[in-house]
Amino acid sequence: MANESVLRPGELKDVLLREIAAADLAATDLEEVGTVLEVKDGVARIYGLTAAMAGEMLEFRASATGESISGLALNLEEDNIGAVILGNYLQLKEGDEVRRTSRVFEVPVGSGMIGRVVDPLGRPLDGKGPIAAEGARHVEMVAPGIVVRQPVKVPLQTGIKAIDSMIPIGRGQRELIIGDRGTGKTAIAIDTIINQKGQGVVCVYVAIGQKQSTVASVVERLRKSGAMEYSIVVMAAASDPAPMQYLAPYAGCAMAEHFTYAQGRDTLCVYDDLSKHAAAYRQISLVLRRPPGREAYPGDVFYLHSRLLERAAKIAEDPELTKADPRIQKPGGSLTALPIIETLAGDVSAYIPTNVISITDGQIFLETDLFYSNVRPAINVGISVSRVGGNAQIKAMKQVAGRLRLDLAQYRELEAFSQFGSDLDQATLRQLARGQRLVEVLKQPQYATMDVAQQIEIIFAATNGYLDDVDVAQVRAWETAFHEYMAASHPDIAAEIGARKALSDDLTARLKQAIETYKALKK
Questions:
Q1: Helix (H, G, I), strand (E, B), or coil: what is residue 442?
Q2: What is the mean pLDDT of residues 8-28?
């Protein structure tokens, strides 16, 4: 008939939605179920689940195998949801069921995690059986507020002379380790973890996008050093889907936060590395059809890392202050973050490096030229900095290392200048000779961390000219024998430095006397 009205599909949909909304379904036990529209590259687009929350865990049911696979809702659009799949997405296909869990993504936490290698979901990867977790913690957490924080003032000793003397790290700090591939970034992080033995620090090493064989060798090294007794390794390997690599650092941070907030302990998180993390997030975002920006990264890539690194903090020890944050069950803990960023051809002005530099409290820049000229750790003293500075050092180290950075910087300038001319005055030659010996003293082999008192003894000797008459090639051997002599003949000096954490006039005189006696023996 001419006057017969025809409903358009959009109008029909609106009518149906209004009828469903008006229906009295309160007495009926219903479960919201969605349907997979498409699956590709670890990302699913889902129809339905209109009440799902951002960051909510979803449960996919693979019709082919009957297996349940976890997912995470990331994009909430008008008529569909974009979710990342935390498992084998190849088992899913169009038409499979998806159910809400009404839970925000969380990971198991507790002392049972210590000594284990887990994936970003907290599942064991080391073949040692199930983990006895004490509870679960949300992966995405708001960083602690300014009221509950206190200034960073307790050192986190790395055991590496060049860092502890010139670029000190404090508990609660965020210090970036940056450099090209193969310049020793992971080596510094692993040495720092090894050096926490007996310090009461819980360490979490997060491996993002690395080969499984590389992570296995790191775990084995930690085990040999006894460091796995206080460490957790979270691994999202290069073979794992991008969503797992994206979630790994947040999961590791949540595991560490349990010890910081619930037990008031000091923790250390190493994120190795955030360049691969950003690349995984870019992959997810492009598949989710989020608009790309600079270097094809999405616009929120700065927020990606800032919300992770802001969670590093030194929590106030005053219980009255910590009442402002109900998450803090025991005050006084800290979370120190050591993010790692890989540069290309030393370009620290690229997008991701500049982002993370602006978030952190300083950076340790490792230079390829120094590494291949056998200066290891290959730290460029010129652009490496700790914005916490002397607050993260004991007084004794500040007393002996105060002029070390300046002496080295002057040496680097004179070294470049001296290549163009041979006629140098005696003062310049002496400064060059001193600089060469300082560089030798600051060299340190991997996995050979040094107690802070021993560091102070050798740096005192170097900066006060006691090595000026030692041949450059013999400096390393001189230092090794010097430490053996001090440990055998003057153990009281190191013990007093460790106890007092400052050099008194009497202690300084005894240290000078010990060095002069050792030099006399060497002649």
A1: helix
A2: 71
29 pLDDT above the threshold of 80: no
pLDDT band at 4 (very low <50, low <70, confident <90, very high): low
- pLDDT of 1: 44
CB atoms within 10 A of CB 477: 11
Q: Which of 61, 307, 387, 476 is catalytic?
A: 387
Separation of alpha carbons 193 and 184, rounded Å: 15
pLDDT digits (tens, 9 = 90+) for 99-125: 999 999 999 999 999 999 999 999 999
- Closest by alpha carbon to 477, among 446, 502, 443, 449? 443
Which is it for strands 266-272 and 201-208: parallel, antiparallel or unpaired?
Answer: parallel
- Rounded to an integer, what distance in angstroms lies between the CA atom of residue 182 and that of residue 371? 9
The separation between the first and the last C-alpha atoms of the chain, rounded to the nearest angstrom, is 118
- The backbone torsions φ and ψ at residue 62, rounded to the nearest 5 degrees and listed phi first, read -75, 115
| Strand segments (E) across 231-317 | 231-236, 266-272, 313-314
Q: Is-contact 364 167, C-beta < 8 A?
A: yes
387 is catalytic: yes
